[in-house]
Amino acid sequence: MHRRRDVRGQFTGAPIPADVLGRILAAAHAAPSVGLSQPWDFIRVTDDRTRRAFHAHVQHERTVFAATLAGERAERFDGIRIDGILAASMSLVVTYDPARGEPAVLGRHAIADAGLYSVCLAIENLWLAATAEGLGVGWVSFYREPFVQELLGIPAGIRPVAWLCVGPVTHLETTPDLERHGWARRRPLADAVHAERWRGRDDQLPVGSRRG
Ligand SMILES: Cc1cc2nc3c(=O)[nH]c(=O)nc-3n(C[C@H](O)[C@H](O)[C@H](O)COP(=O)(O)O)c2cc1C
């Protein structure tokens, strides 16, 4: 879990053995899901034209985001790589089907997002399994959902949740890219743990010290 990284720049492009890919997808498919709805699907994308089309779309969205930045923030973003779409061995696109398991998905009547949470758990399982297999994964979210639906022929109502770049890597960094580039810092665990109520100070757990 602590070795896992979001990878953009370290993909080698070497192929992923079929048995390894099978184990990673099996790990994803073993995730918990609300009402046992298993609302995910996985689209394996290796076609160069498809990946190039997606890459061009992501580059455009990069400029859209960059236009919202100014000064030091804009300069920093300039040096940050946001995807490894063309360098990674393949892409795996994970989707969410809210109709899966309907009617009456047990546990979702009050929280519609519980379906999406389930898909994210499958993604995290996939990510950890890939790390254990020595592969890197990079989550790309610089896209508009209708573009990806059109590109991959995803039916209306089914949402692309993640475009994951997957493949062998030269190494996994020990520090997140965004921290290495001075864009953001990880928050101390102690700041995230509360006792009894929101912002209740917890001095009993060995979770380190708070920031500032
Ligand atoms: C929902 C989600 C979307 C993300 N989208 C992108 C993205 O579009 N481009 C990118 O470079 N990283 C993306 N990331 C990776 C995060 O930047 C990364 O997880 C974070 O900086 C922590 O680094 P680590 O995963 O190496 O620990 C995304 C991560 C998540 C969970």
UniProtKB/TrEMBL annotation:
EC number: 1.13.11.79
Pfam families listed in its UniProt record: Nitroreductase
Keywords linked to the UniProt accession: Flavoprotein, FMN, Oxidoreductase
Keyword Hydrolase attributed: no
Span of domain Nitroreductase: 3-167
Signal peptide (residue range): none
A GO term, aspect molecular function: 5,6-dimethylbenzimidazole synthase activity
Domain of life: Bacteria
Xref: InterPro entries: BluB, Nitroreductase, Nitroreductase-like, Nitroreductase/BluB
Statement: the UniProt record of this protein carries the keyword Oxidoreductase: yes
Protein name per Swiss-Prot or TrEMBL: 5,6-dimethylbenzimidazole synthase
Source organism of this protein record: Candidatus Frankia alpina
